[in-house]
Design a protein that fits this description.
Structural class: mainly beta
Helix content: under 10%
Oligomer: single chain
Strand content: over 45%
Radius of gyration: 13 Å
Number of helices: 0
Distance between the termini: 40 Å
Largest sheet: 7 strands, mixed
Length: 116
């Protein structure tokens, strides 16, 4: 049974930090590209950050570059998203994604709210 379980979401003020974590099971984690997406109400889901198999190749949306950091641990089957200097426009449900060779798995999402 494939599972992706996100945790670490919450409500913070602008400028503060959160660290999201995704625990994966039921597939060969190291063979999948791992990503974080987010979706705000009424908007399309967008890619936030992506990591290649080993965690060496990384890609970020321009809106989060320099503030967010994606990392993966293939021994623990986890992928994290460190979010610093959070802004109100970062408010969204954040989803963990695993993708490779026609397979596309999603977590249930975790809410991040940034407001004064």
């Amino acid at each position: 049974q494939v599972q992706l379980v996100e945790s670490g979401g919450g409500s913070v003020q602008p400028g503060e930090s959160l660290r999201l974590s995704c625990a994966a099971s039921g597939f060969t984690f190291s063979r999948y590209i791992m990503s974080w997406y987010r979706q705000a109400p009424g908007k399309e889901r967008e890619l936030v950050a992506r990591s290649g198999f080993s965690g060496i190749w990384l890609n970020y949306a321009d809106s989060v570059k320099g503030r967010f950091t994606i990392s993966r641990d293939n021994g623990k089957n986890t992928v994290d998203l460190q979010m610093d200097s959070l802004k109100p426009e970062d408010t969204a449900v954040y989803y963990c994604n695993a993708q490779w060779n026609g397979n596309d798995y999603w977590g249930q999402g975790t809410q991040v709210t940034v407001s004064s």
